[in-house]
């Protein structure tokens, strides 16, 4: 066969095979397209609601840490997850409306920060329509949302999170250590706050043990915090203490103001308050708490059953002292070298 005949024969053979090649190519393209569609469907963007009760450093720090940790764990807002933030700004009615919106908006999960937002969301989610993860909560078992106190796994299958019980007893002991002669301690607190009630109950017991009279002043809202704190001054308190209390903490400047008017120090269970004038604040590092919540949420979104997660009490302790704004409280308040060593920051 000469060269010309060979080429003609080759072309003829290719023409015969071409329909088969085209059929194979078309089938392959169809399979590739179907696979791409399946992958796209499986990689849809998750939707998560982040619901906090108020705007204050504790919750803002926890929220920022949560979002950062989620990204580190592979869930980046705006990439493969959409995180929508909600804030009730200490208003229960607004919180209830937010919870209902979250329930009816098709979110894959909701993360709540603070005891009130946990309670509001859990109440709206009684039918278990949405996975609920919580944090920055003083006493999960005492929140009245179906969580048991004896067994860390005793919680609804759709509801799980992290507790952070403020070190109330340590705060009272520290106050007594700094002023052994202390007789009267004031405590403004919101009667509507379950977390505040729980903290005050611990404070009552510890004060009784140490020979301190705990004088309480009820608070209804942030606007009444200053008046309540001034009322405590009139009763002769020698210092004031604030535990876990979303309402009073949102107006901590008012407590500090009342304290300065009478030349008495303010102690709190939130390290953020020292920067706002509190004398000594011992509590949790809430940025670290936010990181823990983010890691737990990522783990659950990646497949771990919520019902298998034990509810733990996580308190990365932090102590901050403010000397700068408390120079006129009297020589009876003594910061020993031991106390100074415990502090992560001393504001001078």
UniProtKB/TrEMBL annotation:
<dbReference type="Pfam" id="PF04392">
    <property type="entry name" value="ABC_sub_bind"/>
</dbReference>
<protein>
    <recommendedName>
        <fullName>ABC transporter substrate-binding protein</fullName>
    </recommendedName>
</protein>
<dbReference type="InterPro" id="IPR007487">
    <property type="entry name" value="ABC_transpt-TYRBP-like"/>
</dbReference>
<dbReference type="InterPro" id="IPR028082">
    <property type="entry name" value="Peripla_BP_I"/>
</dbReference>
């Amino acid at each position: 066969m000469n060269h010309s005949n060979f080429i003609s024969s080759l072309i003829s053979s290719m023409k015969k095979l071409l329909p088969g090649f085209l059929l194979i190519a078309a089938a392959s393209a169809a399979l590739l397209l179907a696979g791409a569609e399946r992958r796209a469907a499986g990689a849809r963007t998750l939707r998560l609601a982040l619901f906090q009760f108020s705007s204050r450093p504790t919750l803002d720090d926890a929220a920022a840490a949560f979002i950062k940790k989620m990204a580190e764990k592979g869930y980046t807002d705006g990439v493969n997850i959409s995180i929508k933030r909600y804030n009730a700004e200490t208003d229960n009615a607004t919180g209830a409306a937010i919870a209902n919106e979250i329930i009816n908006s098709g979110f894959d999960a909701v993360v709540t920060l603070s005891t009130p937002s946990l309670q509001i969301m859990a109440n709206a989610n009684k039918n278990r329509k949405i996975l609920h993860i919580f944090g920055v909560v003083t006493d999960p078992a005492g929140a009245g949302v179906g969580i048991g106190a004896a067994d860390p796994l005793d919680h609804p299958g759709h509801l799980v999170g992290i507790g952070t019980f403020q070190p109330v007893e340590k705060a009272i002991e520290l106050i007594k250590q700094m002023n052994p002669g202390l007789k009267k301690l004031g405590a403004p607190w919101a009667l509507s706050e379950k977390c505040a009630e729980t903290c005050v109950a611990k404070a009552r017991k510890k004060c009784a043990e140490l020979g301190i009279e705990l004088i309480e002043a009820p608070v209804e809202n942030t606007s009444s915090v200053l008046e309540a704190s001034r009322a405590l001054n009139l009763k002769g308190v020698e210092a004031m203490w604030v535990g876990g209390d979303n309402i009073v903490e949102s107006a901590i400047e008012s407590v500090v103001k009342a304290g300065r008017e009478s030349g008495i120090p303010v102690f709190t269970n939130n390290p953020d308050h020292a920067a706002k004038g509190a004398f000594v604040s011992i509590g949790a590092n809430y940025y670290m708490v936010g990181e823990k919540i983010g890691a737990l949420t990522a783990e659950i979104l990646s497949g771990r059953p919520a019902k298998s997660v034990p509810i733990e009490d996580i308190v990365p302790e932090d102590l901050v002292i403010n000397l700068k704004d408390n120079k006129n409280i009297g020589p009876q308040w003594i910061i020993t070298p031991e106390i100074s060593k415990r502090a992560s920051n001393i504001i001078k």
